Protein backbone atom coordinates (compact mmCIF):
# COMPACT_ATOMS: atom_id res chain seq x y z
CA UNK A 1 0.00 0.00 0.00
CA UNK A 2 1.25 3.46 -0.92
CA UNK A 3 0.23 5.88 1.86
CA UNK A 4 -1.48 9.06 0.70
CA UNK A 5 -0.09 11.97 2.78
CA UNK A 6 -3.25 14.01 2.16
CA UNK A 7 -5.42 11.50 4.07
CA UNK A 8 -3.63 10.53 7.32
CA UNK A 9 -5.30 8.33 9.91
CA UNK A 10 -6.22 11.21 12.25
CA UNK A 11 -8.06 12.98 9.44
CA UNK A 12 -10.01 9.89 8.41
CA UNK A 13 -10.87 9.12 12.04
CA UNK A 14 -12.14 12.62 12.87
CA UNK A 15 -14.07 12.65 9.58
CA UNK A 16 -15.88 9.43 10.51
CA UNK A 17 -16.58 10.61 14.07
CA UNK A 18 -17.90 13.88 12.67
CA UNK A 19 -20.33 12.00 10.41
CA UNK A 20 -21.72 9.99 13.32
CA UNK A 21 -22.06 13.04 15.57
CA UNK A 22 -23.72 15.21 12.92
CA UNK A 23 -26.34 12.49 12.51
CA UNK A 24 -26.99 12.58 16.27
CA UNK A 25 -27.13 16.37 16.21
CA UNK A 26 -29.61 16.50 13.36
CA UNK A 27 -31.91 13.85 14.78
CA UNK A 28 -31.96 15.30 18.31
CA UNK A 29 -32.42 18.78 16.82
CA UNK A 30 -35.49 17.55 14.93
CA UNK A 31 -36.85 16.16 18.18
CA UNK A 32 -36.42 19.58 19.79
CA UNK A 33 -38.08 21.33 16.85
CA UNK A 34 -41.02 18.91 16.95
CA UNK A 35 -41.85 20.10 20.47
CA UNK A 36 -42.52 23.59 19.07
CA UNK A 37 -42.87 23.12 15.29
CA UNK A 38 -42.96 26.83 14.49
CA UNK A 39 -40.33 29.43 13.71
CA UNK A 40 -40.56 33.18 14.18
CA UNK A 41 -38.39 36.24 13.64
CA UNK A 42 -40.30 38.26 16.24
CA UNK A 43 -39.73 37.49 19.91
CA UNK A 44 -43.32 37.54 21.11
CA UNK A 45 -44.14 34.46 19.00
CA UNK A 46 -47.62 35.84 18.36
CA UNK A 47 -50.08 33.43 16.72
CA UNK A 48 -50.09 33.65 12.96
CA UNK A 49 -46.76 35.47 12.70
CA UNK A 50 -44.59 32.40 12.08
CA UNK A 51 -42.39 32.48 9.00
CA UNK A 52 -42.33 28.68 8.92
CA UNK A 53 -44.33 25.94 10.61
CA UNK A 54 -44.40 22.15 10.47
CA UNK A 55 -47.93 21.69 11.71
CA UNK A 56 -51.42 22.30 10.36
CA UNK A 57 -52.73 23.44 13.72
CA UNK A 58 -54.03 26.98 13.84
CA UNK A 59 -53.35 28.92 17.03
CA UNK A 60 -56.02 30.76 19.02
CA UNK A 61 -55.41 34.49 19.34
CA UNK A 62 -56.33 34.61 23.02
CA UNK A 63 -53.60 34.21 25.63
CA UNK A 64 -53.76 31.48 28.23
CA UNK A 65 -56.13 29.06 26.50
CA UNK A 66 -53.57 27.07 24.53
CA UNK A 67 -50.31 25.83 26.02
CA UNK A 68 -47.16 25.11 24.09
CA UNK A 69 -47.23 21.44 25.12
CA UNK A 70 -50.52 21.14 23.25
CA UNK A 71 -48.62 22.09 20.09
CA UNK A 72 -46.05 19.30 20.39
CA UNK A 73 -45.71 16.84 17.49
CA UNK A 74 -44.61 13.21 17.77
CA UNK A 75 -41.69 12.03 15.65
CA UNK A 76 -40.94 8.42 14.87
CA UNK A 77 -37.80 7.07 16.59
CA UNK A 78 -36.56 6.38 13.08
CA UNK A 79 -36.35 10.14 12.56
CA UNK A 80 -35.99 11.85 15.94
CA UNK A 81 -33.62 11.16 18.80
CA UNK A 82 -35.29 9.70 20.73
CA UNK A 83 -38.72 10.50 19.20
CA UNK A 84 -42.26 10.11 20.57
CA UNK A 85 -42.55 13.53 22.24
CA UNK A 86 -39.53 13.30 24.53
CA UNK A 87 -38.26 16.87 24.46
CA UNK A 88 -36.20 16.42 27.64
CA UNK A 89 -34.22 13.48 26.30
CA UNK A 90 -33.95 15.17 22.91
CA UNK A 91 -32.33 18.18 24.53
CA UNK A 92 -29.94 15.98 26.52
CA UNK A 93 -28.87 14.02 23.44
CA UNK A 94 -28.39 17.29 21.58
CA UNK A 95 -26.15 18.53 24.37
CA UNK A 96 -24.08 15.34 24.45
CA UNK A 97 -23.70 15.46 20.66
CA UNK A 98 -22.70 19.14 20.69
CA UNK A 99 -20.01 18.59 23.31
CA UNK A 100 -18.47 15.67 21.44
CA UNK A 101 -18.84 17.38 18.04
CA UNK A 102 -17.09 20.56 19.20
CA UNK A 103 -14.31 18.52 20.84
CA UNK A 104 -13.82 16.45 17.69
CA UNK A 105 -13.86 19.62 15.58
CA UNK A 106 -11.22 21.27 17.73
CA UNK A 107 -8.96 18.24 17.38
CA UNK A 108 -9.46 18.31 13.62
CA UNK A 109 -8.74 22.03 13.21
CA UNK A 110 -5.68 21.97 15.50
CA UNK A 111 -4.18 19.03 13.62
CA UNK A 112 -5.12 20.59 10.30
CA UNK A 113 -2.95 23.62 11.03
CA UNK A 114 -0.27 21.73 12.99
CA UNK A 115 0.41 19.40 10.05
CA UNK A 116 0.15 22.02 7.33
CA UNK A 117 -2.74 20.18 5.67
CA UNK A 118 -4.85 23.34 5.91
CA UNK A 119 -3.42 24.24 2.49
CA UNK A 120 -5.54 21.44 1.00
CA UNK A 121 -8.72 23.20 2.08
CA UNK A 122 -8.17 26.94 2.52
CA UNK A 123 -7.66 28.81 -0.78
CA UNK A 124 -4.49 30.89 -0.98
CA UNK A 125 -5.16 32.51 -4.36
CA UNK A 126 -8.05 34.43 -5.91
CA UNK A 127 -7.76 32.07 -8.86
CA UNK A 128 -9.95 29.72 -6.85
CA UNK A 129 -13.05 31.78 -7.74
CA UNK A 130 -13.04 31.44 -11.55
CA UNK A 131 -11.84 27.85 -11.24
CA UNK A 132 -14.68 27.05 -8.85
CA UNK A 133 -17.18 28.64 -11.26
CA UNK A 134 -15.83 26.50 -14.08
CA UNK A 135 -16.23 23.38 -11.95
CA UNK A 136 -19.77 24.37 -11.03
CA UNK A 137 -20.74 24.72 -14.69
CA UNK A 138 -19.39 21.23 -15.30
CA UNK A 139 -21.57 19.81 -12.49
CA UNK A 140 -24.61 21.73 -13.76
CA UNK A 141 -24.07 19.99 -17.08
CA UNK A 142 -24.32 16.65 -15.23
CA UNK A 143 -20.68 15.86 -15.87
CA UNK A 144 -17.70 15.39 -13.58
CA UNK A 145 -14.42 17.35 -13.61
CA UNK A 146 -11.35 15.38 -14.59
CA UNK A 147 -9.40 13.61 -11.87
CA UNK A 148 -6.45 15.92 -12.52
CA UNK A 149 -8.36 18.79 -10.88
CA UNK A 150 -8.46 17.02 -7.51
CA UNK A 151 -5.15 17.70 -5.74
CA UNK A 152 -6.63 16.38 -3.50
CA UNK A 153 -9.62 18.75 -3.83
CA UNK A 154 -10.71 20.98 -6.67
CA UNK A 155 -11.45 24.69 -6.25
CA UNK A 156 -15.19 24.27 -5.68
CA UNK A 157 -14.55 21.72 -2.94
CA UNK A 158 -12.03 24.02 -1.29
CA UNK A 159 -14.55 26.85 -1.14
CA UNK A 160 -17.28 24.53 0.09
CA UNK A 161 -15.19 22.88 2.78
CA UNK A 162 -13.78 26.20 3.98
CA UNK A 163 -17.31 27.59 4.25
CA UNK A 164 -18.61 24.58 6.19
CA UNK A 165 -15.63 24.30 8.56
CA UNK A 166 -14.94 27.95 9.28
CA UNK A 167 -18.32 29.67 8.75
CA UNK A 168 -21.26 27.26 8.87
CA UNK A 169 -20.10 25.13 11.81
CA UNK A 170 -19.16 28.18 13.97
CA UNK A 171 -22.50 29.80 13.12
CA UNK A 172 -24.31 26.73 14.45
CA UNK A 173 -22.33 27.03 17.68
CA UNK A 174 -22.82 30.79 18.06
CA UNK A 175 -26.56 30.70 17.39
CA UNK A 176 -26.94 27.61 19.58
CA UNK A 177 -25.38 29.15 22.69
CA UNK A 178 -27.44 32.32 22.13
CA UNK A 179 -30.53 30.28 23.05
CA UNK A 180 -29.11 29.44 26.49
CA UNK A 181 -30.69 31.48 29.31
CA UNK A 182 -27.34 31.66 31.09
CA UNK A 183 -25.83 33.40 28.04
CA UNK A 184 -28.83 35.63 27.38
CA UNK A 185 -29.15 36.79 30.99
CA UNK A 186 -25.42 37.56 31.21
CA UNK A 187 -24.85 38.94 27.69
CA UNK A 188 -28.26 40.20 26.50
CA UNK A 189 -26.63 42.44 23.86
CA UNK A 190 -25.22 39.39 22.13
CA UNK A 191 -28.59 37.68 21.81
CA UNK A 192 -30.27 40.87 20.68
CA UNK A 193 -27.57 41.32 18.03
CA UNK A 194 -28.74 38.03 16.49
CA UNK A 195 -32.36 39.16 16.43
CA UNK A 196 -33.24 37.94 19.90
CA UNK A 197 -34.05 34.41 20.93
CA UNK A 198 -36.26 33.77 17.92
CA UNK A 199 -33.72 35.28 15.54
CA UNK A 200 -31.05 32.97 16.93
CA UNK A 201 -33.44 30.02 16.75
CA UNK A 202 -34.38 30.74 13.13
CA UNK A 203 -30.76 31.31 12.08
CA UNK A 204 -29.83 28.05 13.81
CA UNK A 205 -32.53 26.25 11.85
CA UNK A 206 -31.32 27.73 8.54
CA UNK A 207 -27.75 26.70 9.33
CA UNK A 208 -29.01 23.21 10.20
CA UNK A 209 -30.74 22.91 6.83
CA UNK A 210 -27.54 23.99 5.08
CA UNK A 211 -25.48 21.47 7.07
CA UNK A 212 -27.96 18.66 6.33
CA UNK A 213 -27.91 19.59 2.64
CA UNK A 214 -24.13 19.61 2.61
CA UNK A 215 -23.95 16.15 4.21
CA UNK A 216 -26.35 14.67 1.65
CA UNK A 217 -24.54 16.31 -1.27
CA UNK A 218 -21.11 15.44 0.08
CA UNK A 219 -21.91 11.77 0.64
CA UNK A 220 -23.57 11.55 -2.76
CA UNK A 221 -20.64 13.08 -4.65
CA UNK A 222 -18.18 10.80 -2.86
CA UNK A 223 -19.86 7.89 -4.60
CA UNK A 224 -20.66 9.58 -7.92
CA UNK A 225 -17.51 11.56 -8.76
CA UNK A 226 -14.33 9.45 -9.10
CA UNK A 227 -15.62 7.07 -6.46
CA UNK A 228 -12.76 4.59 -6.78
CA UNK A 229 -10.24 7.25 -5.77
CA UNK A 230 -12.46 8.68 -3.02
CA UNK A 231 -13.06 5.30 -1.43
CA UNK A 232 -9.45 4.22 -1.13
CA UNK A 233 -8.46 7.69 0.09
CA UNK A 234 -11.10 7.76 2.84
CA UNK A 235 -11.00 4.12 3.91
CA UNK A 236 -7.35 3.13 3.55
CA UNK A 237 -5.50 6.41 3.05
CA UNK A 238 -4.14 4.74 -0.10
CA UNK A 239 -3.24 6.16 -3.51
CA UNK A 240 -3.75 3.06 -5.63
CA UNK A 241 -7.31 2.17 -6.60
CA UNK A 242 -6.57 -1.56 -6.58
CA UNK A 243 -8.66 -2.08 -3.45
CA UNK A 244 -11.55 0.11 -4.55
CA UNK A 245 -14.14 -2.69 -4.36
CA UNK A 246 -13.10 -3.51 -0.81
CA UNK A 247 -13.21 0.19 0.10
CA UNK A 248 -16.72 0.50 -1.37
CA UNK A 249 -17.91 -2.41 0.74
CA UNK A 250 -16.41 -1.00 3.92
CA UNK A 251 -17.81 2.48 3.22
CA UNK A 252 -21.35 1.24 2.62
CA UNK A 253 -21.19 -1.02 5.67
CA UNK A 254 -19.95 1.90 7.78
CA UNK A 255 -22.80 4.16 6.67
CA UNK A 256 -25.35 1.42 7.38
CA UNK A 257 -23.79 0.83 10.81
CA UNK A 258 -23.96 4.55 11.60
CA UNK A 259 -27.64 4.70 10.65
CA UNK A 260 -28.39 1.62 12.77
CA UNK A 261 -26.48 3.19 15.66
CA UNK A 262 -28.56 6.39 15.42
CA UNK A 263 -31.78 4.41 15.50
CA UNK A 264 -30.52 2.14 18.29
CA UNK A 265 -29.87 5.22 20.46
CA UNK A 266 -33.53 6.15 20.10
CA UNK A 267 -34.85 2.75 21.08
CA UNK A 268 -32.31 2.39 23.90
CA UNK A 269 -33.50 5.72 25.28
CA UNK A 270 -37.18 4.83 24.98
CA UNK A 271 -36.68 1.41 26.58
CA UNK A 272 -35.82 3.08 29.91
CA UNK A 273 -36.25 6.82 29.74
CA UNK A 274 -35.24 7.41 33.36
CA UNK A 275 -31.95 5.58 32.74
CA UNK A 276 -31.36 7.57 29.56
CA UNK A 277 -32.01 10.81 31.48
CA UNK A 278 -29.46 9.92 34.16
CA UNK A 279 -26.84 9.10 31.54
CA UNK A 280 -27.33 12.04 29.18
CA UNK A 281 -28.09 14.73 31.79
CA UNK A 282 -25.03 13.59 33.74
CA UNK A 283 -22.80 14.03 30.70
CA UNK A 284 -24.21 17.41 29.72
CA UNK A 285 -23.79 18.71 33.26
CA UNK A 286 -20.04 18.58 32.65
CA UNK A 287 -20.45 21.24 29.98
CA UNK A 288 -22.73 23.36 32.16
CA UNK A 289 -20.23 23.31 35.01
CA UNK A 290 -17.34 24.30 32.74
CA UNK A 291 -19.01 27.00 30.68
CA UNK A 292 -22.29 28.19 32.21
CA UNK A 293 -22.60 27.77 35.98
CA UNK A 294 -20.19 30.59 36.75
CA UNK A 295 -22.15 33.11 34.66
CA UNK A 296 -24.32 35.38 36.80
CA UNK A 297 -27.34 37.13 35.23
CA UNK A 298 -27.55 40.90 35.16
CA UNK A 299 -30.96 41.65 33.65
CA UNK A 300 -31.69 44.20 36.36
CA UNK A 301 -28.53 46.10 35.36
CA UNK A 302 -28.68 45.83 31.56
CA UNK A 303 -30.03 48.27 28.97
CA UNK A 304 -30.06 46.08 25.86
CA UNK A 305 -33.72 45.23 26.45
CA UNK A 306 -36.06 48.06 27.44
CA UNK A 307 -39.79 48.63 27.72
CA UNK A 308 -39.83 49.19 23.95
CA UNK A 309 -39.06 45.47 23.53
CA UNK A 310 -42.02 44.25 25.60
CA UNK A 311 -43.96 41.54 23.77
CA UNK A 312 -47.55 41.94 22.71
CA UNK A 313 -48.21 38.22 23.24
CA UNK A 314 -47.02 35.76 25.89
CA UNK A 315 -47.30 31.99 25.52
CA UNK A 316 -47.77 29.82 28.58
CA UNK A 317 -47.15 26.27 29.66
CA UNK A 318 -49.59 24.89 32.17
CA UNK A 319 -53.10 26.10 32.91
CA UNK A 320 -54.27 27.67 36.20
CA UNK A 321 -55.40 25.32 38.98
CA UNK A 322 -58.97 24.11 38.87
CA UNK A 323 -61.28 23.74 41.85
CA UNK A 324 -60.52 20.02 41.97
CA UNK A 325 -56.77 20.65 41.93
CA UNK A 326 -56.61 23.51 44.43
CA UNK A 327 -59.77 24.84 46.09
CA UNK A 328 -57.52 27.09 48.23
CA UNK A 329 -56.17 28.90 45.17
CA UNK A 330 -59.63 29.20 43.61
CA UNK A 331 -61.01 30.70 46.83
CA UNK A 332 -58.12 33.19 47.00
CA UNK A 333 -58.63 34.16 43.35
CA UNK A 334 -62.34 34.73 43.89
CA UNK A 335 -61.65 37.10 46.82
CA UNK A 336 -59.17 39.21 44.85
CA UNK A 337 -56.31 37.38 46.58
CA UNK A 338 -57.28 38.41 50.10
CA UNK A 339 -57.02 34.82 51.20
CA UNK A 340 -53.80 34.09 49.31
CA UNK A 341 -50.93 32.75 51.42
CA UNK A 342 -47.30 31.82 50.82
CA UNK A 343 -45.65 29.57 53.37
CA UNK A 344 -41.94 30.11 54.06
CA UNK A 345 -40.46 27.00 55.61
CA UNK A 346 -37.39 25.21 56.87
CA UNK A 347 -37.78 21.48 56.31
CA UNK A 348 -34.66 20.76 58.32
CA UNK A 349 -35.99 22.29 61.55
CA UNK A 350 -39.69 21.97 60.75
CA UNK A 351 -40.39 25.69 61.22
CA UNK A 352 -42.49 27.90 58.95
CA UNK A 353 -43.93 31.39 58.51
CA UNK A 354 -46.96 32.50 56.49
CA UNK A 355 -47.21 35.65 54.36
CA UNK A 356 -50.07 37.23 52.46
CA UNK A 357 -49.79 39.26 49.28
CA UNK A 358 -49.68 42.56 51.18
CA UNK A 359 -46.75 41.29 53.27
CA UNK A 360 -44.94 40.36 50.08
CA UNK A 361 -45.38 43.81 48.56
CA UNK A 362 -44.00 45.54 51.66
CA UNK A 363 -40.54 44.09 51.00
CA UNK A 364 -37.95 45.99 48.90
CA UNK A 365 -38.93 45.65 45.25
CA UNK A 366 -36.89 45.13 42.09
CA UNK A 367 -38.03 45.61 38.48
CA UNK A 368 -36.36 44.69 35.22
CA UNK A 369 -37.04 43.79 31.58
CA UNK A 370 -36.18 40.19 30.71
CA UNK A 371 -36.77 37.63 27.99
CA UNK A 372 -38.59 34.51 29.13
CA UNK A 373 -37.70 31.35 27.21
CA UNK A 374 -39.31 27.95 27.30
CA UNK A 375 -37.22 24.86 26.70
CA UNK A 376 -39.60 24.12 23.81
CA UNK A 377 -38.45 27.26 21.99
CA UNK A 378 -40.98 30.08 22.47
CA UNK A 379 -40.03 33.38 24.07
CA UNK A 380 -41.57 36.62 25.33
CA UNK A 381 -40.18 39.87 26.72
CA UNK A 382 -41.74 41.49 29.80
CA UNK A 383 -41.03 43.84 32.67
CA UNK A 384 -41.14 41.83 35.87
CA UNK A 385 -41.57 43.39 39.32
CA UNK A 386 -41.23 41.59 42.62
CA UNK A 387 -38.97 40.88 45.57
CA UNK A 388 -35.66 39.05 45.56
CA UNK A 389 -35.96 35.46 46.72
CA UNK A 390 -33.05 35.88 49.10
CA UNK A 391 -34.82 38.81 50.83
CA UNK A 392 -37.92 36.70 51.22
CA UNK A 393 -35.95 33.85 52.75
CA UNK A 394 -34.32 36.24 55.22
CA UNK A 395 -37.72 36.57 56.89
CA UNK A 396 -37.24 33.12 58.43
CA UNK A 397 -33.65 33.81 59.48
CA UNK A 398 -30.22 32.82 58.20
CA UNK A 399 -29.78 29.82 55.94
CA UNK A 400 -30.08 26.72 58.14
CA UNK A 401 -27.02 24.51 58.59
CA UNK A 402 -27.16 21.73 56.06
CA UNK A 403 -29.64 23.46 53.76
CA UNK A 404 -28.29 23.21 50.19
CA UNK A 405 -31.39 23.94 48.12
CA UNK A 406 -34.67 25.83 48.06
CA UNK A 407 -37.86 24.05 47.01
CA UNK A 408 -40.71 26.13 45.57
CA UNK A 409 -44.18 24.54 45.49
CA UNK A 410 -47.14 25.51 43.31
CA UNK A 411 -50.87 25.37 43.88
CA UNK A 412 -51.01 23.89 40.37
CA UNK A 413 -50.26 20.44 38.98
CA UNK A 414 -47.96 19.10 36.30
CA UNK A 415 -49.47 19.08 32.81
CA UNK A 416 -48.63 15.42 32.30
CA UNK A 417 -46.23 12.77 33.58
CA UNK A 418 -43.90 10.96 31.21
CA UNK A 419 -44.94 7.55 32.56
CA UNK A 420 -48.68 8.41 32.41
CA UNK A 421 -49.20 8.28 36.19
CA UNK A 422 -51.65 10.78 37.73
CA UNK A 423 -50.55 14.41 37.55
CA UNK A 424 -48.59 15.55 40.60
CA UNK A 425 -48.21 18.94 42.34
CA UNK A 426 -45.77 21.19 40.52
CA UNK A 427 -42.52 22.10 42.24
CA UNK A 428 -38.98 23.18 41.36
CA UNK A 429 -35.74 23.14 43.29
CA UNK A 430 -33.03 25.80 42.99
CA UNK A 431 -29.39 25.47 43.94
CA UNK A 432 -27.80 28.06 46.22
CA UNK A 433 -26.09 29.93 43.37
CA UNK A 434 -29.45 30.52 41.69
CA UNK A 435 -31.19 31.37 44.97
CA UNK A 436 -28.78 34.22 45.68
CA UNK A 437 -28.68 35.70 42.17
CA UNK A 438 -29.92 39.29 41.93
CA UNK A 439 -32.37 38.31 39.20
CA UNK A 440 -34.06 35.48 41.07
CA UNK A 441 -37.28 37.03 42.33
CA UNK A 442 -40.83 36.29 43.32
CA UNK A 443 -42.78 38.45 40.86
CA UNK A 444 -46.28 39.82 41.42
CA UNK A 445 -46.44 42.33 38.54
CA UNK A 446 -45.84 42.11 34.79
CA UNK A 447 -45.54 45.22 32.67
CA UNK A 448 -46.69 47.41 35.57
CA UNK A 449 -49.93 45.48 36.13
CA UNK A 450 -50.86 42.68 38.54
CA UNK A 451 -49.70 39.34 37.25
CA UNK A 452 -52.15 37.62 34.91
CA UNK A 453 -53.85 34.46 36.13
CA UNK A 454 -52.51 32.25 33.34
CA UNK A 455 -48.95 33.50 33.97
CA UNK A 456 -48.89 32.64 37.66
CA UNK A 457 -51.01 35.11 39.63
CA UNK A 458 -50.72 36.31 42.20
CA UNK A 459 -47.03 35.40 42.58
CA UNK A 460 -44.57 33.38 40.55
CA UNK A 461 -40.87 32.63 40.55
CA UNK A 462 -38.43 34.27 38.14
CA UNK A 463 -34.93 32.80 37.80
CA UNK A 464 -33.49 34.54 34.75
CA UNK A 465 -30.43 32.30 34.41
CA UNK A 466 -32.72 29.31 33.77
CA UNK A 467 -35.41 28.22 31.33
CA UNK A 468 -39.04 28.74 32.25
CA UNK A 469 -39.62 25.23 33.59
CA UNK A 470 -37.76 26.24 36.77
CA UNK A 471 -39.99 29.31 37.30
CA UNK A 472 -42.90 28.04 39.39
CA UNK A 473 -46.27 29.73 38.84
CA UNK A 474 -49.02 30.09 41.49
CA UNK A 475 -46.51 29.77 44.36
CA UNK A 476 -47.83 28.10 47.52
CA UNK A 477 -44.63 27.57 49.55
CA UNK A 478 -40.90 28.23 49.57
CA UNK A 479 -38.77 25.95 51.72
CA UNK A 480 -35.17 25.31 52.64
CA UNK A 481 -34.28 21.64 52.09
CA UNK A 482 -31.21 19.50 52.50
CA UNK A 483 -31.35 17.41 49.31
CA UNK A 484 -33.79 17.37 46.41
CA UNK A 485 -33.30 13.60 46.12
CA UNK A 486 -35.78 13.30 49.01
CA UNK A 487 -38.65 14.91 47.06
CA UNK A 488 -40.72 13.73 44.11
CA UNK A 489 -38.73 11.37 41.93
CA UNK A 490 -35.51 12.88 43.22
CA UNK A 491 -34.62 14.77 40.05
CA UNK A 492 -35.13 18.29 41.38
CA UNK A 493 -38.45 19.40 39.97
CA UNK A 494 -41.71 18.45 38.33
CA UNK A 495 -40.46 19.07 34.78
CA UNK A 496 -37.44 16.94 35.64
CA UNK A 497 -39.80 14.24 36.94
CA UNK A 498 -42.54 14.60 34.31
CA UNK A 499 -40.51 15.44 31.19
CA UNK A 500 -37.01 14.31 32.19
CA UNK A 501 -35.49 17.78 31.91
CA UNK A 502 -32.14 18.58 33.53
CA UNK A 503 -32.04 19.91 37.08
CA UNK A 504 -29.78 22.67 35.78
CA UNK A 505 -31.90 24.77 33.44
CA UNK A 506 -29.20 27.16 32.23
CA UNK A 507 -29.24 25.84 28.66
Automatic annotation (TrEMBL):
GO terms for biological process: respiratory electron transport chain. The keyword Metal-binding does not apply. GO terms for cellular component: plasma membrane. It is a multi-pass membrane protein. The keyword Transmembrane applies. Residues 335-482 form the Oxidoreductase molybdopterin-binding domain. The chain crosses the membrane at residues 15-33, 98-118, 159-183, 203-225, 245-268. Residues 7-227 form the Cytochrome b561 bacterial/Ni-hydrogenase domain. Pfam families: Ni_hydr_CYTB, Oxidored_molyb. It is found in: Cell membrane. Keywords: Cell membrane, Membrane, Transmembrane, Transmembrane helix. This is DMSO/TMAO reductase YedYZ, molybdopterin-dependent catalytic subunit. The lineage of its organism: Bacteria, Bacillati, Actinomycetota, Actinomycetes, Micrococcales.
Amino acid sequence: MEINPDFPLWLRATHLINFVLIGMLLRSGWEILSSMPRLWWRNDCAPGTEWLRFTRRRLPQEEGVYTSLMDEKSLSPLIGLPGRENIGLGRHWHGVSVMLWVLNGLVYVVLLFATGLWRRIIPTSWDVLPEAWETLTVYLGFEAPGIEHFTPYDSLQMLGYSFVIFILAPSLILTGIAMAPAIRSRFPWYVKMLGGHQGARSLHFIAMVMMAGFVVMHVGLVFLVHGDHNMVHMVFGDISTARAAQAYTIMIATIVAAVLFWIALSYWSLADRARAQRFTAGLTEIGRKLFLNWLRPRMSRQNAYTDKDISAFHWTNGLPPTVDESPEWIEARDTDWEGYRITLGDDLAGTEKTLNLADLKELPQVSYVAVHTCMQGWSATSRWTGVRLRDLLDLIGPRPDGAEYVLVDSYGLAQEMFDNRPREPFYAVLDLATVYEDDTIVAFERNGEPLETHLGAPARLRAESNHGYKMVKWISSIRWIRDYADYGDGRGGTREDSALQAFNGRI
